[in-house]
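Entry 12.
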Amino acid sequence: GAGFIGSNLIQAFVGNSQYNIYIYEPNFANISRITHYNEDITIIRGSLDDFENLKKIILTNDIEIVVHLVSTLLPGSSYNDYKNEFETVIFPTINLMSLCSELKIKLVFFSSGGTVYGNSTNEKFCESDILAPISYYGLSKQVIEDSILFEHRTKNLDYLILRPSNPYGPGQSLFANQGLIAVSLGKIINKEPITIWGDGNSIRDYIYIDDLSKIFFNLIDNGIKNEIVNIGSGEGHSINDIIFLFHKIVSENLEVSYEKSRNVDVSKMVLDIRKLQTISILPQTSLEAGIRKFYDYINTIK
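Predicted 3D structure (tokens):
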């Protein structure tokens, strides 16, 4: 809840008296993104694998919806990282979903539209396509998705699996190892070269974080359940397209370094959002407008 996506999702719910918001974070987690919500949320410290504590919190506070945003992996994570994810995230999550089915609580899981589908010649990926991730990050998301669907088949768990594309915008770390737009803007601000893996022709679907948050609120508010939903723009943009927009938007000089492509990166990933169109509002922010908003925001906090 205190991460990039979670902190922005909170913003979409704050001010709506229908919802009481509880954030469950480990003791070591940085919660600076959400401290200004203190009067509107309750922050509880604990571990995902502390099942008894989770159960107590859920029962004590009459929780009706659990939103799962936990992951320790990145697309480039190793097998050893994946093994650790099993112990600290996947197995505890399976226990959590069992509790949710027992107590008739809806479980909302943020999967990954950018990694679970894998490499394919598909023009766009829809929710019914076969999952074939090529990274341990994507595989971990698929394992949790499959476990949710199993729990639904066997114990009637109510669920909502969301597969967002590549979100970007305020609150995203400029100095992490994930998020092309954010990391590139961080490099630009620091007058460092931008590193591109490959020739810059790989294509992704990007969504501005405000759009993702509004869509999420709309899906929850409308009671959508037992669905898998892509959330993206439905449009593909290459890395070189983004570099072109940087030249157009930013005032700093750009230096770009092209490196050998990585085998964990898919060549093209664009989401089919026809299902989203039938059940929710759609993204409103163009890629250029979103990058401009993000860049302006960064300049206000420098």
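Annotation: The CA atoms of residues 6 and 69 lie 7 Å apart. The longest helix spans residues 79-103.
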